[in-house]
Structures are given as C-alpha cells and as structure tokens.
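haha ok so turns out i had the wrong file open the whole time. this is the CORRECT one, sorry everyone. sequence first:
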Amino acid sequence: RRGESAGAARASHPVFIVRVRVQNTSDEIIELLQGSLKARDSEAYLPLDLCWVDRQSSLRSGSVEEFDCARLNQAASEQATAFANGAPGRFEVRWEPSKIKLGSGRELRGP
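then structure:
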C-alpha cells in the first residue's frame, strides 16, 4: 500500500522491516549507494532478500547512517520470521553492491 506507514501495515498483517546501518570507512564521500542485502539460509536453497538499498544522499568519510527497509505490501514469510526471531547459525547476511558513486565522480560497480 503506497504511502502507508509501517504501523498501519502491521495492523493489517505482520511485515518484515530491516534496520540497515551503513558506515563510510573510505576517505571519500559516498554520493550514491545501490545494492542488495541478503541473508543466506542454511535451511533453504534461495536466500532471503532483506532489502534493496538505493540511497542518494551524501555520506561523509567516517559517518554512519541508519534507515529502515520494508515491503509493506506483503506479509512476512516464515523465512523472514525465523530471521527476525534470531535463529542462531542459520543465516549469514551478505551485502551485494550494484553501484557506488563517490564524491570524486568515480563509480564502482558490482557484478
């Protein structure tokens, strides 16, 4: 549901919300950050898609930014619920960058 708040969506069905924390450890400003955050699941063939990140804001060297990522239009899956409940050793979180644009204009691209 477009424009719906996370609270309103949770009232109609359980949703999966991921809090993402990004830290710029480079010496340059990050202007654009795109990529996928996934959790490899030892009990499933396919990974759990946690979040598609598409941030277009300046992140200075050493800075930290946090944001929520959610799919408000769909209910949380059994796999997402297991991840949220903290199944020890079952999941391994992976960042798969697609594109990173630096303040210098240089672009880094993933596979």
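Residues 16 and 84 are 8 Å apart (CA to CA).
again sry for the mixup
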